[in-house]
Design a protein that fits this description.
- It is an enzyme of class 5 (isomerase).
- Its EC number is 5.2.1.8.
- Belongs to the FKBP-type PPIase family.
- It catalyses: [protein]-peptidylproline (omega=180) = [protein]-peptidylproline (omega=0).
- It contains 1 helix and 9 strands.
- It has about 140 residues and is mainly beta.
- The chain folds into 2 domains: about 80 residues, Chitinase A, domain 3 (Roll), CATH 3.10.50; about 50 residues, Thrombin, subunit H (Beta Barrel), CATH 2.40.10.330.
- Strands 1, 2, 3, 4 and 9 form a 5-stranded antiparallel sheet that branches.
- A hairpin with a 3-residue loop joins strand 7 and strand 8.
- The chain is elongated, with a radius of gyration of 19 Å.
Length: about 140
C-alpha cells in the first residue's frame, strides 16, 4: 500500500499556479521541487488541503477558491494618497508595484491603480485576491512519519 500525504508529511512538490484564462502565475516544474513539511505554514491552508491523501508520483489539478487561496479583494485595502507622498521624480505607472512600510515597519507592497497630479490610488490587496486559482501539483517525494 502506498503512503499518502498526511499532516506533518515531508514533501517535495512541483507546482504551477494558474488563472482561469490559463496564464501561469508561478511554476517550478522546470526547476527543483519545493520542499516543505505539510502544516509548517509554507503553503496557504487551502493549498495544503488539496495535497492531503495524494500519493508520491501523483499529479492533480485543483481549483482553489478565493476564500481558500488569497482571499477576496477588500475595498478597504485600496487607498488614495496625496501625490506628494511619492518622490517628485518617481515615474508612476498603472500596475507598478511600490514598497511601503506598515505601522510595524514591515514591507508592504502596493499596486498603483490610478494617479494624477494630486492623488495616487494604491491597491494593497494581494495581486491574486478574488481570483480562483488552478493549483497543478505533483508529489515528487513523500516521507510520512
Amino acid at each position: 500500500m502506498s503512503k499518502l500525504v498526511t499532516e506533518g508529511a515531508k514533501l517535495a512538490i512541483h507546482f504551477a499556479l494558474k488563472l482561469r484564462d490559463g496564464s501561469v502565475v508561478d511554476s517550478n516544474f522546470e526547476g527543483e521541487p519545493a520542499e516543505f513539511c505539510l502544516g509548517d505554514g509554507n503553503l496557504l491552508p487551502g493549498f495544503e488541503r488539496c495535497l492531503l491523501g495524494m500519493a508520491q508520483g501523483q499529479r492533480e489539478t485543483f481549483v482553489v477558491s478565493p476564500e481558500q487561496g488569497f482571499g477576496q479583494a477588500n475595498p478597504n485595502n485600496i487607498q488614495v494618497m496625496p501625490r506628494s507622498t511619492f518622490a517628485p521624480d518617481m515615474n508612476l505607472a498603472e500596475g507598478l508595484v511600490v514598497s511601503f512600510a506598515d505601522a510595524q515597519k514591515a514591507e508592504l507592497p502596493g499596486v498603483i491603480k490610478a494617479f494624477n497630479d494630486t492623488e495616487v490610488t494604491v491597491d494593497f490587496n494581494h495581486p491574486l485576491a478574488g481570483q480562483e486559482i488552478l493549483f497543478d501539483v505533483e508529489v515528487v517525494r513523500l516521507e510520512v512519519a
